[in-house]
Predict the structure.
Amino acid sequence: MVKQGVIPDELTKPYWDAANEERLVIQNCSACGRLQHPPARACALCGSGANLEWKETVGRGTIYNYGVVYDCPVASLKEDLPFNLAVIMLEEDPGILFYSHLPGTPVDDVPVGATVEVVFEATANGQKVPEWQVPG
Ligand SMILES: [Zn+2]
């Protein structure tokens, strides 16, 4: 499915620039060692805004759970209904979650607990976005 374009802002630009290079990066607080996503201006644990850096992940995760979307208000997604919506736990920190349509995985046939790998898909405006796939 072709996803809506993403417009990076000042805070998220490094994340989206890395996605265009097919790298998944998340924020790491070097003061307390906490990873966080989505990007924020300060660390949610220690409050430091000066020690946030971007860290490249290995790009793997585990399927925590999923649902199937049968109806949604976004017109551009209607032709793809129904579709999977899975919750992915990042390998480096299972507390960091991503959502995925699991391209290539049949609807409602999702292997919960399986390892997935990040892939990158171009959106309507050319910006690449991370997606997750069960390795084929
Ligand atoms: Zn911190």
Helices lie at 13-20, 75-78.
